[in-house]
Amino acid sequence: MADGTGMSEANELVFLPLGGTGEIGMNLNLYGFGPPDARKWMMVDLGVTFSDLRTPGIDVIMADPSFIEERREDLLGIVLTHGHEDHIGAVAHLWPSLRCDVYATPFTAELVKAKLIEAGIEQEVPLKIVELGSRFTLGPFDIELVTLTHSIPEPNALAIRTPLGLVMHTGDWKIDPDPVVGEDIDIKRLTQLGNEGVRALVCDSTNVFSPGESGSEADVAKGLTELIKDMKGRVAVTTFASNVARLESVIRAAEACGRHVVLAGRAMHRVTTAARKTGYLQNLPPIVPEDEAGYLPPENVLYLCTGSQGEPRAALARIATDNHPHVTLSEGDTVIFSSRMIPGNDVEIYELQNLLAERGIRVITEKDHFVHVSGHPCRDELARMYQWIKPEVAVPVHGEARHLLEHAELARELQVPQAMVLKNGLMLRLAPGPAEIIDEAPNGRLYLDGDILMPSWDPAVQERRKLAFAGSVFVTLVLDGQGKVLGEPQVRLLGLPEEDGSGISFEERALDAIDDVLDRLPLRKRKDDAAVAELLRRAVRGAIRREWGKKAAVEVIVTRV
């Protein structure tokens, strides 16, 4: 039944994160409006995270959108807050199952368009470009873009108005008084929205444990110039390609120090192209092509490289192993890591830095000099945002569980009436009434394995983990119709030590186990190929485990002739 305003008494405003809450990365957020059985939905961001040793062979990981796939007729659109991979990286992979409009500002749209072209679906996807500070409507959602600052151009908060109240979704942000590239944070508009009355603030939690403020990009530019001016030999700077302000800072620093910039890495070229198309990185000195870098005197060159997180296929990793076709570093040269070490990447980064150091190349990080500032708000910045917005409900996102708990406690200290800690899949009713978790939606992860999307529980990944841990053994046995063995059993070992502690080969151990089973198994019990294979599998695995202490993956093939 509708009230006098035409609004149904059953209408609810809900927030449902499917990715990026309880973790950093892989953002997928849903807002729903309407009665429980007839909600309209909008999606905010659709990103990826990257694989690690726990997911061998996997390229990228994204949130499972099954919940909204089943309701795609009610999905009004995807709104992208900014162009980082953990916010846009899944669009090209998952749009075919969602098939709705995608909204992005010009720079973000350029990055998305490149991904759609690569996927061959650029003609299918309705990519709607919205200007900074603009306002548009998706069904019951009235969406206003509010300019923020971050480590990429055009980061936006979303002011989402509904008949049940206004929600502020910050996306990623910081307070940068001099961002170098792009607009300043729109404090005036944020304050106006706070005065309008905000039901809930859904907010970035990344740096909640860091006191003070994150610092300004302009100060990094000064720090890099001071650092580079006295250096001898070649200099390489590695950073996130998406941090266009940092790219400009490095280019300006190189110019001030009499060095020409050479871009190394596909992402560097892709992002600079997108930036220039949308009005950024203008009036800079020319970039020297990679294949001409070798003609420059060492003291006049600066390489701007991908690979700050130790990615094995990035430019810096190839340079460190002297496998880059155009870029070379040698003893006396310097590499500056103008970036923060993302948790989980420490092993790869330290290995890369040690490779460089072993070759006599000096390595400088943020711990040595002022060469980086974070793109996320520290505690004092979070406090200022709460002072501007004055929400009734705080909803921490974009953080691990410990970040969310700390952020909620900070919000309470700042006198926010309610602070709700969620995890992916929990549906939060924001209005009407007090904020309350009312449901749990199916959620999970999808793995991109080559060109195939598969669920995280797919046996292929589980088997790869086992193979990575303990190798594999393949056994082939040929039997005739009576169960007699024809020829010798064949054993192939992959990823196992050659010999056990007694100096006996594991191949011999496996063959002995096979012979023992066959000696004890009468011909009449050799009729079932599957049963014979299982007995041999257990025997071989057990024999290897006794001598090695690990359970190898054993596969037995019984052929009948």
Task: Describe it.
The chain is of the alpha/beta class and 561 residues long. Helix content is 30%, strand content 25%. The chain has an eight-stranded mixed β-sheet. α6 (217-228) runs parallel beside α7 (244-256).
Primary descriptors:
eight-stranded mixed β-sheet; alpha/beta; Metallo-beta-lactamase, Chain A; Ubiquitin-like (UB roll); 30% helix; single chain; 15 helices; seven-stranded mixed β-sheet; 561 residues; Rossmann fold; disordered N terminus
Briefly characterize the structure.
With 561 residues, this protein is of the alpha/beta class.
Layout of SSEs?
Elements: E1 12-19, E2 21-22, E3 28-34, E4 40-46, E5 48-50, E6 60-63, H1 66-69, E7 75-79, H2 85-88, H3 91-98, E8 102-104, H4 106-119, E9 127-129, E10 135-138, E11 141-147, E12 156-162, E13 165-169, H5 187-196, E14 200-204, H6 217-228, E15 235-238, H7 244-256, E16 260-264, H8 266-277, E17 301-305, H9 315-320, E18 334-337, H10 346-358, E19 362-364, H11 379-389, E20 393-397, E21 399-400, H12 401-413, E22 418-419, E23 426-431, E24 436-440, E25 445-449, E26 452-455, H13 459-470, E27 472-479, E28 490-494, H14 506-520, H15 529-548, E29 553-560
Parallel strand pairs: 2-21, 4-7, 7-8, 8-9, 13-14, 14-20, 15-17, 15-18, 16-17, 18-19, 20-22, 27-29
Antiparallel strand pairs: 1-3, 1-23, 3-4, 5-6, 6-25, 10-11, 11-12, 12-13, 23-24, 25-26, 27-28
Overall CATH architecture of the largest domain: 4-Layer Sandwich
> In what range is the share of β-strand residues?
25-35%
Describe the sheet with the most strands. 8 strands, mixed
How many distinct beta strands? 29
Instruction: Bin the helical content.
Output: 25-40%
In round numbers, the mean pLDDT is: 94
Classification by helices and strands: alpha/beta
The CATH topology of the largest domain turns out to be: Metallo-beta-lactamase, Chain A
* Widest beta sheet: strand line-up: 9-8-7-4-3-1-23-24
Shape: globular
The number of helical elements comes to 15
Return residue spans where pLDDT drops below 50 for at least 5 consecutive residues. Answer: 1-6
Number of domains: 3
- Which CATH first-tier class of the largest domain would you pick? Alpha Beta
CATH superfamily of the largest domain: Ribonuclease Z/Hydroxyacylglutathione hydrolase-like
Indicate the radius of gyration in whole angstroms. 28 Å
Distance between the termini: 74 Å
